[in-house]
Amino acid sequence: MNPTTLTRSTLLESYRHRIYFKDGQLIESALPEGVKINPIDLGLARTLVADFPREKALLTLNYEAKPKAYSIEITKLLDAKTPVLVLIESKKDEDAIFLHYNVKTNSSIKLVEAHLANDRGALNMVSIAHLSPHSTMDYVSISTSDESNVLANVALARVDAFAKLTHVAANFTKSATTKHVDIALVGEQAHASTTTVAFSHHDQETLFKTNVEHFAPRSEGYIEHYGVASGNATMIFEGIGKIHKNMAKSIAKQSNRGIVIGAHARLDANPLLLIDEHDVEAGHGAAIGQIDEDQLYYLMSRGLRRRDAETLIIKGYLAPLKKAVKEEKIHELFDQLLAEKTR
Amino acid sequence: MAVLKIKNLRAKAGDNEILRGVTLTVKSGETHAIMGPNGTGKSTLASVVMGHPRYEVIDGSITLDGEDVLAMSTDERARAGLFLAMQAPAEVPGVTNSDFIKTAMNARLEEGENLSLFKFIRAYDKAVAELKMSEDLPHRYLNEGFSGGEKKRNEILQMKMLKPRIAILDEIDSGLDVDALKTVGENVTAMKSDNLGLLLITHYQRLLDYISADTVHVMMQGKIVKSGDTDLMKRIDTEGYDWIKEELGIDDERVVTEKDERIILGECATKEALEEK
Ligand SMILES: Nc1ncnc2c1ncn2[C@@H]1O[C@H](COP(=O)(O)OP(=O)(O)OP(=O)(O)O)[C@@H](O)[C@H]1O
Ligand SMILES: [Mg+2]
């Protein structure tokens, strides 16, 4: 089975509740009570993007590709046992999709968004999540593509008071990829953690920008980047935690970890903390380098061949993903997608 | 029947010669204990036998059943039947304990053969229970956040699963409470057979109350300076090492003396200064 077919079928088999887009068209939607999808007009999409509180947009919706825009409204407390899959498959030359996730007060959702970009196409996918006060969103995104594709993905989120966003993004694309996560914490005690796990190989050029901006006191933002770069790949992590003046007792933390395999791959992390208030907790740590010699030796001392030991250590980076997604089949899919990059 | 033969082994780390002519033979069915003050080269000997990349062998030989161990990579040594329970095993985040052992066991099978998952889980659970380890262990990440005692038990768990022919246990007793020491001791003793040769590195005679040894060696200055039976160990336990040093005319038992150490530190400092630029 080719990788795309496998990924598509594994995803569709694993999730009963789902929304399936293909080449910009809504093919299927099977949703639990409390979740609704409706088309919205581009004017509204444009306003939503323009109104997002941040200093400058880095990537936006490709209006020339005549994007399709939808709003997905969540009005109930849905637990992690009722995950909703949003599958976006694209084979078109230029495909653009805009999704507005509107999580209402006291509602919650577990969402798995998957991007499958195939054939010569270019997928531009922009989402904006609004988390109303006291809502929660568990937001996993999985990106795959074949070699000839280009993926430009923007995930914006606006988190209101006492709301909590947990975002985990997995990137297994095989082509040039830009991913931009931009989170605005706008209400008191808004909480967001965003974890990116990315593997780049061959000649891939990949950029992951994560921005968490604190517009409210006692807000918490956590950025984690895990990366593996091999072959001639380049990977850049840019994480910015910004706390505005008077947003006291806020927490901004960031960590960057990465493994560089071989002499030609590059992985750079540029963590930035912009703090305009003294009564906060902020910090960042980084650990990027070759595979740890002692770990490798330890595994090999139990009989693992070097390659298997390396693969296992790299697989260790999938741990946050596996924690975020419970479905056994998806774990296998992750292993599979990783294997395609490490063999 | 396995025979590990170490002959006149000399090895260095960087510019430091640490092993300065170690000769020792361990056969299956035998249990040897190595004692010796801190910094005399015991762990280095274990690491060199296992092929740690940070050490370079300058002279001597190691063979297992006549095969040249020094020509083998670390993983080949393991698959040939060598095992080292490490004094300070590495932590590997994200890799679960059970995944790791499963992969290690699979690595020992012929191409095309596959480990029966059912049998594996049964054997694993049994070993976990015998070592009185917690049930969530299989799902925990390899050594990450393990207490000192848990790490030691985890080393023995791997030994139980991998069934080596020659096993070196480096300070398996350190960091264990009395009950844990008993558990670990009983488990190791239960593994004793005509097919297993054991080399125990320890500071205390106490370990030998649980795992009996036939021969005791004392290491100083990167060599084995004295061998004997368990009476030797008892004497060390009560009197310390001074009498041996006196007997042999050894002044400073360590491999790297304070004078050397200053030189190493000096080098590191220069290196760091260079890297900062
Ligand atoms: N990789 C290394 N680089 C530099 N020096 C080393 C290295 N490994 C060991 N040494 C030095 O060699 C000496 C012997 O170390 P080793 O760990 O073998 O001692 P040991 O006998 O096991 O001591 P202990 O009883 O404290 O465990 C020490 O002085 C140590 O600092
Ligand atoms: Mg030691």
Indicate the mean pLDDT of chain A: 92
Biggest sheet architecture of chain A: 10 strands, mixed
Q: In what order do the strands lie side by side in the largest sheet of chain A?
A: 2-1-5-7-9-11-13-15-17-19
Query: What's the rounded overall pLDDT mean of chain B?
Result: 91
Number of helices of chain A: 6
CATH topology of chain B: Rossmann fold
Structural features, described:
The complex is a heterodimer of chains A (343) and B (277). Chain A has helices at residues 3-14, 42-50, 293-300, 306-315, 319-324, 328-342; strands spanning 17-22, 25-30, 35-39, 68-74, 84-90, 94-103, 108-117, 122-131, 136-145, 150-159, 164-171, 176-185, 191-200, 205-214, 220-229, 234-243, 251-260, 266-275, 281-289. Chain A is α/β, with parallel strands linked by helices and 343 residues long. Chain A has one domain (3-293). In chain A, helix 1 (3-14) packs antiparallel against helix 6 and helix 3 packs across helix 4 (306-315). The two termini of chain A are 17 Å apart. By secondary structure, chain B is α/β, with parallel strands linked by helices. Chain B has a single domain, classed as Rossmann fold (3-Layer(aba) Sandwich). In chain B, strands 6-7-8-3-9-10 form a six-stranded mixed beta sheet, with helices on both faces. In chain B, strands 2-1-4-5 form a four-stranded antiparallel beta sheet, with helices on one face. Chain B is globular, with a radius of gyration of 20 Å. The A-B interface holds A 292-295, 297-306, 308-309, 312-313, 315-319 and B 50-54, 73-75, 77-79, 83-84, 86, 89-95, 99-101, 103-104, 107-108, 141, 158, 162. The structure holds adenosine-5'-triphosphate and magnesium ion.
